[in-house]
């Protein structure tokens, strides 16, 4: 704090405050850098220490870094930075001390308030705000002194009229400079000269500092109204850090190092308008606050903005948690996560009446208010009967006659976040029957309230954090309900909010108000969420009733998506007759296609109607059917609990049309719908073979891959698989479990990787029927080796 005694003004830092005043409490006053002897360490433990900091100029304002404890003192034309350090007295004891490390010279600005946090410096005069950042450079770098405008004429043009004009201003005219807002590096154009002067004792060991310009803003008083100059001055400058807190520690210095800065915000205010900027990564105006009354002072927290007028304490919402969430998480506003927008309108939460409010400050969940009783109200209270004053209620007692107005201090506890959240949710229930954006706005405010409370986990007990996490999930569920039921352009946000709520698909469907008749309207948000959820490989299986409702919903709202919906593993329990009736209705809607045909064929298999199945399959060519399987791979392959499961359709094709099955899986692989290993695993599971055995259908698939000329990246591996299989069958005289789809003649005509067959192969091959497949394997092996270059043959044989 800045103190004045005997006409001298100086800065004092108080450490080791005592909770109670006792006879044994002592106070020690010492200068900065004054060494403390080891024998005095025990005395220092039990007394308050005042560190006196001398200055060459009169200090006007002071700021303490809320994270590291460094002090920045503002004087008329310079700002002095004192770095907090701990002076080691003994191995077990150290005392607080400061080191004068830097002087920042800024011309043409007289500070009224300053704020300092983690190298960020905010300076405010009556109508100007300047925000800088101290950056460290390499040790051998050239020291940088910023003089954007070195000539005095340029400075005078940028800052104001000449001395001759200033005399006219005081007598006959009022000159107002044009309002200005300069963001980022453009703020160099403000015309201010900034010079850094390192003064630390260990300067040779430190890195050089330079300035990064962030913001300059100048306001012009509104002279259209007859108001005094005091009514148009800026006030309440504040830098608010939002950081990720590490694990609690008894060592204060160690704890500060564990705080990772996520974002930094700057707030300042005019009497009727407040401005909130974000200054980390990008500098931008986030929110503008319009006050219903003239604001005397304001204080910003990660959750609220508290503003005092002459008689009211007002509370406004802030967007800090939303800004931090978007800056910190690259997956925000995707199908995985969402957050209310920073641009959402701010609103007032509560207004409390206090008489004679003068000052406000904030500590954790406490608001400290300083009030001064009105003199006229004091005169009225003097007429009331006197009461005996006591220490407990001294702050609210009458002043004795002849004394001045009474000063009072109030400590107000803010409402716990979960309690306020529940109140806002209860209030939002009044909008349930009305389709309006007000419900989304109110629930978004409640959601951001919980987000902000979860930022600083160090201040929370384990039970409190669990309660907040549960409230966070609940708020996501409420927002998901809003976006799924209301007609809004952001209906797609229902999906990420429902995901963040940890609600299952069945639980979300249970929250839907299903109408008994067919007049129910399904909004885009709900359709989008269910459609996307069913596209995912969920292990959740809906009940027959819920599956029927989902099918009916898409039949009415999105009939084009109905084939995809019915192919989802989650819809396994749907009644096949109901699914068939839904698909049959697509004929009249103009959606008849190969995908609808294949879906009908799959449903016909579940119904056990093979005639109906053949009728559907014969309505398209084989190539068209392959294209249909590419559009919806889940007709053949599904995943449950991370395992590949062939469908009933795939099992039936294996028995009746294996060529179509192989061609379809090959089409899926070409279109990146299935990987190489997944395809191999699919055929092994389909044929009931283990990992060590290779069914003939898989060999047919490998040969189809080679015929289709896949990229050279997989060619060597594919050749090795086929060669190994041919050699293994010949050596073991193992017959294939099914008839091969391609003969050696087919491979010669279709693939350049196979050469010409030699006559000696026919001589070695017996003509008996039992060895027919043996002869085919021998021919394929000879053709295959003959078609490959010598180097590849040697490599394969070596493998």
TrEMBL record:
Biased composition, Polar residues: where in the chain? 150-168
Region annotation (Disordered) ranges: 141-168, 375-401
Give the protein name, as stated in the record.
Hermansky-Pudlak syndrome 3 protein isoform X3
Please give one Pfam family short name. HPS3_C
Higher taxonomy: Eukaryota, Metazoa, Chordata, Craniata, Vertebrata
Q: Which domain of life is it from?
A: Eukaryota
Check the record and name the InterPro entries matching this protein: HPS3, HPS3_C, HPS3_N
Where's the BLOC-2 complex member HPS3 N-terminal domain?
Answer: 2-400
Compositional bias per record (Basic and acidic residues), positions renumbered to this chain: 375-386
Please name the source species. Answer: Dipodomys ordii (Ord's kangaroo rat)
Where in the numbering of this chain does the BLOC-2 complex member HPS3 C-terminal domain appear? 419-787
- GO CC terms on record? BLOC-2 complex; cytoplasm
């Amino acid at each position: 704090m800045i103190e004045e005694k005997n006409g001298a003004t100086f800065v004092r830092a108080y450490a080791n405050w005592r909770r109670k005043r006792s006879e044994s409490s002592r106070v020690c006053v010492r200068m900065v850098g004054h060494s403390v002897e080891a024998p005095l360490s025990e005395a220092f433990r039990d007394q308050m220490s005042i560190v006196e900091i001398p200055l060459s100029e009169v200090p006007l304002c002071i700021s303490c870094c809320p994270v590291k404890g460094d002090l920045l003192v503002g004087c008329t034309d310079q700002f002095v930075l004192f770095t907090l350090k701990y002076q080691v007295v003994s191995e077990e004891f150290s005392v607080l001390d400061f080191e004068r490390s830097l002087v920042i010279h800024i011309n043409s600005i007289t500070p009224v308030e300053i704020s300092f946090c983690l190298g960020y410096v905010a300076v405010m005069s009556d109508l100007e705000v300047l925000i800088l950042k101290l950056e460290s450079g390499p040790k051998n770098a050239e020291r940088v002194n910023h003089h954007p405008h070195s000539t005095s004429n340029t400075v005078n043009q940028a800052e104001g009229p000449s001395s001759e004009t200033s005399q006219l201003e005081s007598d006959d005219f009022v000159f107002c400079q044009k309002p200005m807002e300069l963001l980022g590096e453009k703020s160099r154009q403000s015309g201010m000269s900034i010079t850094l002067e390192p003064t630390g004792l260990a300067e040779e060991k430190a890195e050089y500092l330079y300035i990064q310009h962030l913001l300059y803003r100048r306001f012009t008083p509104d002279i259209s109204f007859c108001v005094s100059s005091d009514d148009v001055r800026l006030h309440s400058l504040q830098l608010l850090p939002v950081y990720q807190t590490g694990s609690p520690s008894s060592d204060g210095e160690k704890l500060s190092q564990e705080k990772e800065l996520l974002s930094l915000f700057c707030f300042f205010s005019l009497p009727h308008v407040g401005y909130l900027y974000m200054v980390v990564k990008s500098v931008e105006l986030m929110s503008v606050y319009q006050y219903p009354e003239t604001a005397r002072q304001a204080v910003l927290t990660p959750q609220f903005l508290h503003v005092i007028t002459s008689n009211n304490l007002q509370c406004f919402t802030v967007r800090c948690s939303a800004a931090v969430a978007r800056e910190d998480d690259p997956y925000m506003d995707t199908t995985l996560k969402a957050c209310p927008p920073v641009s959402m309108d701010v609103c007032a939460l509560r207004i409390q009446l206090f008489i004679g409010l003068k000052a406000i400050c904030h500590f954790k969940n406490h608001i400290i208010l300083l009030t001064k009783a009105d003199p006229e109200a004091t005169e009225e209270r003097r007429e009331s009967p006197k009461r005996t004053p006591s220490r407990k209620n001294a702050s609210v007692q009458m002043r004795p006659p002849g004394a001045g107005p009474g000063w009072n201090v109030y400590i107000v506890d803010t409402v716990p976040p979960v309690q306020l959240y529940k109140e806002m949710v209860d209030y939002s229930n009044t909008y349930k029957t009305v389709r309006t954006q007000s419900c989304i706005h109110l629930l978004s405010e409640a959601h951001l309230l919980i987000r902000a409370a979860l930022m600083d986990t160090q201040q929370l007990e384990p039970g409190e954090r669990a309660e907040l996490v549960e409230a966070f999930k609940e708020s996501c569920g409420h927002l998901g309900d809003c976006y799924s039921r209301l007609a809004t352009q952001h209906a797609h946000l229902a999906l990420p909010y429902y995901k963040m709520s940890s609600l299952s698909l069945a639980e979300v469907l249970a929250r839907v108000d299903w109408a008994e008749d067919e007049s129910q309207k399904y909004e885009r948000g709900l359709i989008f969420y269910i459609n996307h959820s069913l596209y995912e490989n969920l292990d959740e299986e809906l009940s027959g009733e819920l599956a029927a409702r989902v099918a009916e919903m898409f039949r009415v709202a999105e009939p084009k998506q109905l084939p995809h919906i019915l192919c989802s593993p989650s819809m396994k329990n749907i009644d096949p007759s109901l699914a068939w009736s839904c698909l049959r209705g697509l004929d009249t809607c103009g959606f008849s296609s190969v995908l609808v045909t294949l879906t009908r064929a799959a449903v016909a298999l579940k119904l056990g109607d093979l005639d109906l199945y053949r009728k559907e399959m014969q309505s398209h060519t084989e190539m068209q059917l392959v294209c249909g399987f590419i559009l919806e791979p889940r007709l053949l392959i599904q995943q449950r609990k991370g395992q590949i499961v062939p469908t009933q359709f795939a099992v039936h094709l294996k028995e009746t049309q294996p060529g179509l099955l192989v061609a379809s899986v090959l089409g899926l692989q070409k279109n990146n719908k299935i990987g190489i290993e997944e395809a191999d695993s699919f055929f092994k599971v389909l044929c009931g073979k283990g990992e060590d055995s290779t069914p003939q259908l898989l060999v047919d698939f490998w040969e189809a891959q080679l015929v289709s000329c896949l990229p050279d990246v997989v060619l060597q591996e594919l050749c090795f698989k086929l060669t190994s299989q041919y050699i293994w069958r010949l050596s073991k005289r193992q017959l294939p479990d099914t008839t091969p789809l391609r003969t050696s003649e087919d491979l010669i005509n279709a693939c350049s990787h196979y050469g010409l067959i030699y006559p000696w192969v026919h001589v070695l091959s017996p003509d008996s029927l039992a060895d027919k497949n043996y002869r085919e394997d021998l021919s394929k092996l000879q053709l295959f080796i003959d078609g490959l270059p010598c180097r590849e043959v040697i490599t394969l044989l070596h493998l």
